[in-house]
Every structure is written in C-alpha cells, then in structure tokens.
From TrEMBL:
Residues 24-278 form the EAL domain. This is EAL domain-containing protein.
Amino acid sequence: LVKKDLKDNYCFYSQELQYKSLEQVKMINHLRRATENNEFYLLYQPIIDLQNGKLMGAEALLRWDNPELGIVSPVKFIPLAEKMGFIYDIEKWVLKTALMQKREWRDKNYPNLKISINISGKRIVSAGLIREIRELLQETGLKAEEIQLEVTETAVMKNMDASIKILNEIKNMGIQIALDDFGTGYSSLTYLKKLPIDLVKLDREFIKNISTANNDRLIVEHIIKLLQKLNIKVVAEGIEQEEQTAILRGHHCDYGQGYLFGKPVSKEEFERLMLSVSF
Ligand code: C2E
Ligand code: MG
Ligand code: MG
Ligand code: MG
C-alpha cells in the first residue's frame, strides 16, 4: 500500500499509525523523548467567579518547547501522543507538576484556589489511574476537593461505559469533574444525564457571539438554566469582552475564563495575578 515514494511526504511507519506526513513522523520522534528531555512546561489560566469577581481556580495548560520544532500547540501534539501511547507518561507529569504547584500556592499564596487539569480519554480508561491519583494526593497532602479534572465528551464517547465507571470512582473520592468544550460535540444533552459531572465548560464557540447574536444568547441562557436545574455549575470559556461578562452574569453563569481575565501564563505571572485579581 505504500504509494509512490518517501519523497512524496508519506512514510510507512507502523501498521497502527498508517501513513503520516514527514512533519508528523519528525514530531513523533521528538515527542518520544520530550518528557525525559524536560521539554514540557505548564501555563496557568485564571477561572473567575462571575458573581463576585474573585479568582476561583487555575487551569493547567500543557506546552511543549522543542529545540528543533519550537513551541508546538497541544492541539497538534496531544492527538499524536494519544495515538503513540506517549500520553500516559506526559499526563502523569502534568498531573504531578500541577498538583505540586497547587500545594505550593496553597501554602504561600492562595489557599482556596482550585487546580484544574485536562485529561485525555485514553488515560481515563487506562489501568492504574485511580491509584496514581491516590498516591499523588498522599504525596502532596492535597485534598481531593482542591482538584478538578476536565474531560471532553469526544474523549469519553469512545469508551462510554468504562469511562462512566472510572469517573464515578474519581467523583466519589471528592474530585470535581468538568465536562470541557461543551457544545462542540454530538448529542451533548444525553451526556449530562449519563456522566457524573459537577461542572460544564461552555465552549468558546457559544460565547463568541452572545453580545451580537440573539440566537446565541438565547441558547446560552437556556443551557445555563438547564444546567442549574441539574445542579451543575457552569464555566463560560473564551470570554474576551466586558459585554459578554455582563450578559453571562445577568444569566447567573457561575464562572468565566478567557483573555479578558487573563491568558494562560507562567507560574510567576500567575502569582502576580493572584495578588491583584478582582473583576
Ligand atoms: P481547553 O481545555 O478547552 O483549553 C482552553 C483553550 O482555549 C486553551 O488553549 C486556551 O489558551 C484557550 N483560550 C482561553 N481563553 C481564550 C480566549 O479568551 N480566547 C481564545 N481565542 N482562546 C482562549 P490551549 O492552551 O492552546 O489548549 C488547547 C487544548 O489543548 C485545550 O483546550 C485542551 O483540550 C488541550 N490540552 C492542553 N493541555 C492538556 C493536557 O495536559 N492534557 C490534555 N489531554 N489536553 C490538554
Ligand atoms: Mg480544559
Ligand atoms: Mg475548554
Ligand atoms: Mg475549548
């Protein structure tokens, strides 16, 4: 099945991978060693309580800085890491680093800050995740209540029953579960019933036009109402304008995240933000 030749930018790699562009093959080879070469770091983006303007939490967002490739977006490398099975080690590092950071901030800056961590679908159903979380809680001395895990519906969809089982266990430990990118997937509403979620993060696509498009505003308003009835807290993603904040506040949206409040920043910058923030 190998067509033409390698110069055509296609390369036979392995059966599982099928055909990858040369760029992807290169990326995979770098990604393979990225954890041991310390090429990952985390940025933190503020999550604001829209009712009182205070800082509620920080979402940890992964960054990869490779000497040859430069800074690569997680949108590009995370799907590859999932396919190649590197995601387990990478996210193990993410979880540990984020929890240790949270522990440091709890002690010296901001005791009530929640730390929010993205987790890939493959990892949710992987063996040993629960044990890994328990061990990290012990090691860092953090309480489960101080942590939120963000999952996407596309991630859990592939392994619905197994994911529900594990997410239930995690929730029972006291960790909060957030459904990320809500509204971008398929039959969103059914997941609200099936999944043990505490929060829903309304995707940026929903929020983008709420100050100009009546339809979008109506949809957001009623989703928030529905979620409140289901006892699920709402985080609006991608807030960039004051008007959006005002509308969301008016509809009693609980939390907001977006460039208006702060972009993802280094731990040092986040510490400065913790001293000053009130919106
Ligand atoms: P996400 O979890 O939905 O994270 C929010 C993304 O939106 C971030 O992009 C953030 O920088 C961006 N964003 C936040 N506010 C605004 C805004 O006001 N305007 C605009 N235009 N964008 C905004 P980022 O950091 O590039 O991350 C992209 C995605 O990569 C994340 O989406 C998440 O799904 C994934 N990701 C990042 N770190 C991890 C990780 O450790 N594990 C997994 N599985 N996925 C991760
Ligand atoms: Mg997220
Ligand atoms: Mg999100
Ligand atoms: Mg998103």
